[in-house]
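Sample A.
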Amino acid sequence: MLYVPKNRVIANPLHVIANPLHVIASVAKQSFFISLFFFIQLLYSQTQIPYFSILDSSPEYEWKTKAKKIYSSDYKGIIAKIKAPSEFKKNLEEELAWANESEDYGWFEIDLNNDKKADAMICKTVYFGPSEGIRFFAIEGNSINYLFDGSGTLVNFKQLGDIIYLQFQYNILDSEEANVLITISFNTKSNIFNYLSKIYYAQQTDVPKSLLSSPITFITTASKTELRYSTELSVPKPKEDDPIKTKTLTSNIVGYFSKGSKGYILNKTTDGKWAFIVFEPQSQPIECSLKHGMDKEKEKVWRAGWIQRQFIK
C-alpha cells in the first residue's frame, strides 16, 4: 500500500547521526547530509521523539543489485496503471519505447523486501543537459504510483528494522544551484512507501562532523535572521578563477527568515556563538538563494545552514 500525500513533509526531524556517509563529491559535506535525513522518519507524534541508531558508511548505492530489467512492448498497458498527472504521463510512452533498447536505461522492477514480488519500479532515463536521472514509482496492487523523479541518482540504501530508507540526490545542472537530497522509506511489513523529506543546502556549506546527541528546537527572535553556509559574518569576494558554486544573496548568506521561524539545532560551535540548524518546511524564508532547476512550484522543503545563536531561543 502506498501513502504519499501531495507535497508531503514531516514535522520534527529528530534522529541523531554521528557517522558521515561517503557520497559523490565532497565527503565531509555531502556525506553528512546523506546521513542527516535518515533521522526524518514517520514522526506523527508532536510529543514523542523517536530515536534511531547510527548508520554505517555507504558509497553510492547501486540499486540495480535489487533490480530486474523489464522487457515489454506493452507500453500503453504500463502507462495505464500509473497514477500521475496527465501531463507527466504524456512523455512516458515514447520514453518507454527508446529506453527498452538499452541495457543501462529503461524500466526496472525492484523487490525491496525479498518476497519475490516487485515493490517499486524505476525508469532510468535521460534529462536535459543531457544528464542521467530516474523516475521512481511504487507498486500498489495493479497500480503504479508516482513518488518522485529528477536528474540524479539513488545514493544510499539502508535498512533499520522493518524500514528501508532510500535517498536520491539531484545532479548539479547549473553551477549556482543548491544541493538537494530526497529521502523516502519503505515498510517491509506493510509495503507502505512514504516520501519523508527534501533538503536544500549550499554546496559551500561547512558541515560539522557530528550532530548533537539531542537536537534542540528553536524559534527565531530577530525580525530577520540570516541563514549562512559558514560561521563568518563576511567572506572574501570570489576570485574570477574560483569555481562557481551555490548562489548567495550576499557574502555567505543564502536565506533570510522572519521572526518566529522554527527549526532544530543539530550542532554548535565550541564558543556557542553559532548553531548548525535545519529550518522546518513550514518556516518559509523571506528570501532564499537555495534553488535548483528541478524545483517544483510552491514546494515546501527543509533548508540547512548556520545561524547566530543570539537570534534564536
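Sample B, a different protein:
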Amino acid sequence: MSGTKVVVIVLVVIAVLFVVLAVWGASQEKSVNPTTDRQKFESTPHPQLQSLGGLLSPFSPKLDPTQMQPSQKTFDLRLHPSYQITVLPDSKNKFRQAKFKATPDRCARVSFDGHSSSASVNSQDSDSKDNTEHQLNLAIPEEGGRITVQRELPLNNGPCTVQLE
C-alpha cells in the first residue's frame, strides 16, 4: 500500500470514531426540560478574570455624568476642597472608564471606593502608576461606588479644577 492510501484509511477510521462517540455522548445526556436546566445554572465568580479589570478598562465605555450624583463634569476645588460623588450601578457594563484631568498638574487627588467583591477594583487612587500628571484614570465596576475628589495638601487658594473627560 502506498502512503496516501494509509493516510486516507486512518482519516476515515478517525471520522467514524468521532461520529460514534458523538452519537453515544448525545444519547447519554438527556435532559427532561432544558429550559429549567438553563435557569438553574449558577456561575461562580472568577477572581482571575476580575483582576483584568484594570487592563480592560481602556476598552470599556466611559463613565457618563448622568451616572453620578451630583451629575457634574467639572469640580472647582477652590470653592470646595473636597467632593463626594456617588457612582450609580450599571448592570449593562462590567466596567466603566473614568478619566479625570486636573488643572494645574497634581493639584488634586481622586480616589474610588467601590461596592464590588473584587479587591482589585474596589479601592483605587490617583497616585497609582497608571496615572500621568495630567490624567487620572479609574476603572469603575458595574456595582458603582464613591469617587472622592479632593485638593492635594497643602491647601492653598490658587485655582484647581478637576474635569471628567
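Observation for Sample B: The radius of gyration is 27 Å.
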